[in-house]
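protien #1 (seq + structre)
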Amino acid sequence: MNLDKIVCNCQSVTNGMIKDAVYSGASTLEEVQAVTGAGTVCGTCLEDVQRLVDHFVAERDNH
């Protein structure tokens, strides 16, 4: 996965920023939004952000 890829254009949030938020303790879409701002402007990326949150939470919890 390209961690530099922007997932939220409105807030310039990358995959890596989502990963960092999850690995810092965020476990829900809402918690990631509070930390990164992803998906809080137009909402177009919400499905992608949710998928990333789910992926990184599972990855984090399996380590």
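ok now protien #2
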Amino acid sequence: MLMRFGFAVALGAVATFALFLLMQALIKSDKSPFDDSISGKIVDFVRVEDDVSIETKQRKPKPPPPPDEPPPDMPRPDFDASDVSQGVDIGAVEIQVDVNVGGTGGFSSDGEYLPIVKVAPVYPRRAQTRGIEGYVLLEFVVTRTGAVRDPRVIESKPPGIFDRAAVNAALKFKYKPKVVNGEPIDVAGVRNRITFELQDG
């Protein structure tokens, strides 16, 4: 016990003496241990930018696309100026429309329907490019307002080529309606034949 105490006292004295020596050395030194300044040389790098020459490209505007070729002259289909029920001869087609015309010198106040406007159908491009010709026989109703209703194909040659064009044209026809007892009425079973022919040249 006594030996330990003596050893501790001796060790403490040595440590104290060492601290005094360290303090003395620090006091004599010019540097402060608390100086945070950075020692050494600072090298400053300055980056010199090269002269950059900017090249400007002159963009030339694109030339306009060539104009589309105009469509070839569409041949005008030949269609009958009058309806079948008015006495136009279309060959073997039988007339089923009941015609009742009063008077000897024309129509009286009552009268039959008369075509006013007939629009030429558009020649189908497929048939035109292939040089196909033909006809379509239509049957429809002339209404009391003079319009065409429910057109349907009775006969066509060649089948299915000109049907749509003929029906679309018939829907644009205008008529003077049939008048009976001073009142316009619908007339069913009106037939019209539209012929599609290519013109030479």
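Confidence is low (pLDDT under 50) at residues 81-108.
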